[in-house]
Amino acid sequence: MSRTALLFLMGMLIYQxxxxxxxxxxxxQVSFFxxxxxxxxxxxxxxxxxxxxxNSSDIAVSMLMNAFVFEKALxxxxxxxxxxxxxxxxxxxxxxxxxxxxxxxxxxxxKIIKGTFTMxxxxxxxxxxxxxxxxxxxxxxSGSFETKVEAYDINIPPLLAGNIAxxxxxDFIIEHEPYVEN
Length: 182
Hints:
With 182 residues, the protein is an alpha+beta fold.
């Protein structure tokens, strides 16, 4: 490779790095709630990471499925072994775009995030109403959405079908900070 080509390539890489603004969430929180007449099921997961490209408004979220904490150990066991099968499907992810996002706005925004949520190898297109709040050097995303259990091919034995809601409410909050590559 000629010296000129090498200098050009290095210049392009430096230009791209300088003009790509990314923010990262290292310990977001996702919780879900399932209401039934028999027993409510709640769980919280603090092993959620996210990255947002402020130039393109692209967002990606990943979470470890076996990191959900339940009120009862038996609920956690059933969730991990029977329903989500976390040994086979250890992570869930969301990849999408924040619609009409204004990253330099210093006040709260409510935006729709459109994207694909993937869990247990099954994907569902979602539109999630999200509050985006600047807090110092942080950008905090929070919101809630509902999803159907059947969308992820989760096998629920007929005997237990009354114990698990068909629709699950998912809440999230993720604090993003400037991403600095080392």
